[in-house]
Amino acid sequence: MVRILVLYGSSEGHTEKIATVMGNALIDAGFAADVIEAGTVDPDVASYDGVIVAASLHRGFFQKSLVSCVHTHRAEIAARPNAFVPVCLAVMQKNDPKVAADLDLVMQRFVASSGWTPSHTNFVAGALPYTRYNVMTRWLMKRIVAKAGGDTDTSRDYVYTDWNEVKAFAVDFGRRVRGAAAA
Which CATH class for the 3-126+161-182 domain? Predict the structure, then answer.
């Protein structure tokens, strides 16, 4: 059976949900999948046929524990089919040239710090959990989102993730891994 690792880093829990949905979609499609939070367990990456790495973007950076784990296992990850799933709100404005340039810069910084260049990258829209932010973060996020024309009612949370797209990506990745393993 094809084994896939879904390694993730999450600051507020939404990327954990995305990683779990990907893992469950893989299992439902007949793959073996383990969902592991970076920094909690040192995964035996070499025992997997494919690796998906998911991380949320905050203030232009991904979780340090995830970057460190990827750096440690960069050779093993690169040696098998792999994908990177950055989770951020900016993806909702990817047609804006400035936003696209910012996302490119973030990816360059990630590659430089982790030492790993993903074979495939799939940006996913995240969430805006206003009710879980402290006062300062809520104010800051409201200003940023307002500039982008987004939701600014801070009395509720917003989820922009297309769950069907997340599941389809995971299953498609699993099929590519199966094809690579059969070759």
Answer: alpha beta
